[in-house]
Design a protein that fits this description.
Radius of gyration: 26 Å
Bound molecules: fructose -6-phosphate
Strand order of the largest sheet: 3-2-4-1-10-9-11-15
Number of helices: 17
Largest sheet: 8 strands, antiparallel
CATH superfamily of the largest domain: Glucose-6-phosphate isomerase like protein, domain 1
Helix content: 25-40%
CATH class of the largest domain: Alpha Beta
Number of strands: 25
Number of domains: 3
Distance between the termini: 11 Å
Length: 617
C-alpha cells in the first residue's frame, strides 16, 4: 500500500528520496513526506497530495543531509492530511519513523503513552511508534547495551515487540545520526547495497537504477544501515550474516519508455512478457519442465483437490486455471477469494494442493490464506511476479511469471502472464500424470507459442476500440456477459472498467441474466459480450439478443463468425484454444477501459482509493 524509500551515503538525500517516491507513487498517493538528518536536528517535510508537491515546500531545496527516509501514503488511519502524512516524530524530536502496514493495537498503545505524558499530533496508528521508541530508549535496559547504536536498536526492538499487525519501518535518530534502522513483519522492505552508500525501499524498482545487489529483509529481522556497512539481527537481536541477492531486472523496464502511461505501456508489453513467461519452460515436441519445482507423479496422484487462492485480477487468473486443471489433469479444482478462504475454515489436508497467485507477492490476505493451508498440512505453490516476495518465501514451491515490473495499479500484463503460467503448469501436471491426450497438449503448446503474435495483431488495430470508448465514456453503468471461460474474463473486463474509469459495471454468466439482472437492461445501456468458444456461440448470442431486444447497445468481442450482425460494434480477435482464450479476449477490454479513462481525463495509472500492493487486510 504505502511506499518507503531511504538513503544513506555521501550524496544529498532529498533528491534521491523524492525520485524514489515518484517511482513508488503507484503504491499510495494521498500524501508524502521526507525526513533528513541535518547538522543537529532531523528535518521533516511533508504534505497532502502527490509526491511532486514536496518540491513546492518552503526550504526543501536547502536540505543538505545525506541520511534520510521517505514515504508516500495510502491512508488507513486518519484522512489524507499534512498532519497524518509520514514521517512521524516523537515528542522529544529525537526519533522519526516512516511505516507501511497497520498497527492493530495502536489505540491501546496510544492510551498507554498518553498515560506516560506523551501527546499526539496525528490520527495515525504510526505515531505511536516513534514515541514508543523514545519511551524504551529512556526506560530501557541501558546497562546490557554497548553503545548508542545498540541502545537505539534495543529501543526499536522493544517498541516493535509491543506492536500487533503488519509493518515495515525505517527509523532515524539524532542520537545516531549516521544510521538508519529498519525492521519488517508482513510488509516488504529491501536494502540496496552500493559502493559507500545504501538504499532502502519497499519495492525493488524504486532503487533499481542505483544497484542490482539487494538484501531482502525477512519477517522480524532488523538491520542497522550505515553508509558502508549493514548489520543484520534476528528477533532476539543476535547478529547474523545475510546473503546478497542479484536482481536481474532491467532498470529501464521500470520507466514509461515513451508511452503516455504505464498502463498503456504494460498492455503493449504483453507479447514480450508472455514470451518471457514461456521462457524455456517448454518447446514443441518436448515435455514441459520447471527448473524451480520438482513435483513427483506419486505426489500428484495423491492430490484429490486443487485450490486457486488469490485476490482481484489474480483470482480471475485462477478462474481460468480451474478450467485448465480440471480439463487437463482431471483434478477437482476450486477458486477462492483469499480474504474469504482465510476465515471460512476450508476443508484441506495433505491431499490438497493450494496454488496462490499474486503479482506483488505481498498481498496480506493471500499470505494469510497460504499460512492457513500450510498449517493444515497442504502443499502450497506460489505464482508471483516478484522474486523473493513474501509469498514466495512462505510457499513450499514458487514459480515466477517473469512479466517484468508492473507499475500501473490496474493489472494487465501480470494477468496474461499468470494465465500463461497456470496453463504451462496444468500441462506439466497432465504430462506427469498422463491424464491428457499427447496431441491435445501438443496443440495447446502451439497455441500458447502463438499468443504473442496474436496479441500483436490485436494491438495493431486499436482504433475501433478507441472509437467505441469515445461513444460510451460518459455512461454510468455497463454489463459484461460471457459463458464458460468467457465469463471468467468478463469478470476481469468489468473489474478493469470499474477501477480506472469509475463506471459502475457488472459481469454475469450470460445464461444467468434472465434470473434477475435483465431487469436492469433498458434503452441505451451498454452490454459487452465475449464470445470465443465455438461450442457456446449460439447460446451466448441468444443471450445477447435478449438484451438487444430490450434496447441495449452492444459490443461483441469474438473470434467466431457470428450468425447475425445486429450488434453495434464487433471486435474480431484471433482464434485460439478456448482454454486460454481469455489471454486474447482480455486485451480489447483492457484497451477499452484505458481509453474510457483517458476520455474522462482520469489518472489511468493511479486510480482513486486504490494501491498497487494491498499489504493490509
Ligand atoms: C486489479 C488489481 C488487483 C490485484 C489484487 C491482487 O487490476 O491489480 O485486483 O490483482 O489486488 O494483487 P496481487 O496480485 O499483487 O496479489
Amino acid at each position: 500500500m504505502c511506499g518507503i524509500v531511504g538513503y544513506i551515503g555521501s550524496k544529498k538525500a532529498t533528491p534521491i528520496l523524492i525520485d524514489g517516491l515518484m517511482s513508488l507513487e503507484y503504491r499510495g498517493y494521498d500524501s508524502a513526506g521526507i525526513a533528513t538528518i541535518e547538522k543537529d536536528a532531523i528535518k521533516v517535510m511533508k504534505d497532502k497530495g502527490r509526491v511532486k508537491n514536496l518540491y513546492n515546500l518552503d526550504g526543501i531545496d536547502k536540505l543538505s543531509g545525506t541520511v534520510g527516509i521517505a514515504h508516500t501514503r495510502w491512508a488507513t488511519h486518519g484522512k489524507p492530511s499534512k498532519e497524518n502524512a509520514h514521517p512521524h516524530m516523537d515528542n522529544s524530536g529525537k526519533f522519526v519513523v516512516v511505516h507501511n502496514g497497520i498497527i492493530e493495537n495502536y489505540a491501546d498503545l496510544r492510551d498507554f503513552l498518553i498515560s506516560k505524558g506523551y501527546t499526539f499530533l496525528s490520527e495515525t496508528d504510526t505515531e505511536v511508534i516513534p514515541n514508543l521508541i523514545h519511551y524504551y530508549y529512556t526506560n530501557g535496559p541501558v546497562s546490557v547495551l554497548k553503545d548508542e547504536s545498540e541502545k537505539f536498536l534495543g529501543a526499536v526492538k522493544s517498541a516493535v515487540y509491543d506492536l500487533k499487525g503488519s509493518y515495515a519501518i525505517e527509523a532515524i535518530s539524532t542520537i545516531c545520526p549516521d544510521e538508519v534502522i529498519v525492521v519488517r513483519k508482513d510488509s516488504p522492505l529491501v536494502i540496496g547495497k552500493a559502493d559507500g552508500e545504501n538504499y532502502i525501499a519497499s519495492d525493488i524498482p524504486a532503487i533499481l537504477k542505483y544497484t542490482k545487489e539487494f538484501y531482502l529483509l525477512d519477517d522480524n529481522e532488523f538491520a542497522i544501515i550505515k553508509s558502508n556497512n549493514i548489520r543484520f539481527f534476528d528477533n532476539s537481536l543476535v547478529e547474523h550474516n545475510k546473503a546478497v541477492k542479484n536482481i536481474e531486472w532491467d532498470a529501464n523496464a521500470a520507466g514509461k519508455d515513451g508511452y503516455e502511461d504505464y498502463m498503456l505501456k504494460e498492455i503493449f508489453e504483453q507479447p514480450t512478457s508472455i514470451r518471457e513467461t514461456i521462457g524455456s519452460r517448454f518447446r514443441l515436441g518436448e515435455k514441459c519442465s520447471f527448473d524451480d519445482i520438482e513435483i513427483s507423479k506419486e505426489y500428484l496422484e495423491n492430490v484429490n483437490r486443487i485450490f486457486f487462492v488469490a485476490c482481484g485480477t489474480a483470482m480471475h487468473a485462477g478462474l481460468v486455471g480451474k478450467n485448465l486443471m480440471e480439463k487437463l489433469c482431471h483434478i477437482p479444482t476450486e477458486v477462492d477469494i483469499a480474504s474469504e478462504f482465510r476465515y471460512r475454515n476450508p476443508i484441506i489436508d495433505e491431499h490438497t494442493l493450494c496454488i496462490y497467485i499474486s503479482q506483488s507477492g505481498e498481498t496480506a490476505d493471500t499470505i494469510a490464506a497460504l499460512k492457513l493451508a500450510k498449517s493444515k498440512g497442504a502443499k502450497t505453490l506460489a505464482i508471483s511476479n516478484v522474486i523473493g516476495s513474501s509469498i514466495t518465501r512462505e510457499a513450499d514451491y514458487s514459480i515466477y511469471t517473469h512479466a517484468g515490473p508492473e507499475i500501473a495499479v490496474a493489472s494487465t500484463k501480470a494477468y496474461t502472464s499468470q494465465v500463461v503460467l497456470v496453463a504451462i503448469l496444468a500441462m506439466h501436471f497432465a504430462e506427469i500424470l498422463g491424464s491428457s491426450d499427447k496431441l491435445e497438449i501438443e496443440s495447446l503448446k502451439k497455441d500458447i507459442i502463438d499468443l504473442p503474435s496474436k496479441i500483436e495483431q490485436i494491438l495493431d488495430n486499436t482504433e475501433p476500440i478507441k472509437d467505441f470508448a469515445k461513444k460510451i465514456y460518459t455512461e454510468k453503468d455497463m454489463f459484461f456477459l460471457g459463458r464458460g471461460t468467457d465469463y471468467s474474463v468478463a469478470l476481469e473486463g468489468s473489474l478493469k472498467l470499474k477501477e480506472i474509469s469509475y463506471i459502475h459495471s457488472e459481469a454475469y454468466a450470460a445464461g444467468e441474466l434472465k434470473h434477475g439482472p435483465i431487469a436492469l437492461i433498458e434503452n441505451g445501456v451498454t452490454v459487452i459480450g465475449i464470445v470465443t468458444d465455438k461450442n457456446l456461440v449460439e447460446k451466448s448470442i441468444s443471450n445477447i439478443q435478449e438484451v438487444i431486444t430490450r434496447g441495449a447497445k452492444t459490443l461483441v468481442i469474438t473470434n467466431q463468425i457470428l450468425p447475425n450482425n445486429n450488434f453495434d460494434y464487433v471486435i474480431n480477435i484471433p482464434e485460439t484454444n478456448p482454454l486460454i482464450s481469455p489471454i486474447l479476449s482480455v486485451v480489447p477490454m483492457q484497451l477499452l477501459s484505458y481509453y474510457i479513462s483517458k476520455f474522462k481525463g482520469l489518472d489511468v495509472d493511479k486510480p482513486r482509493n486504490l494501491a498497487k500492493s494491498v499489504t493490509v487486510e
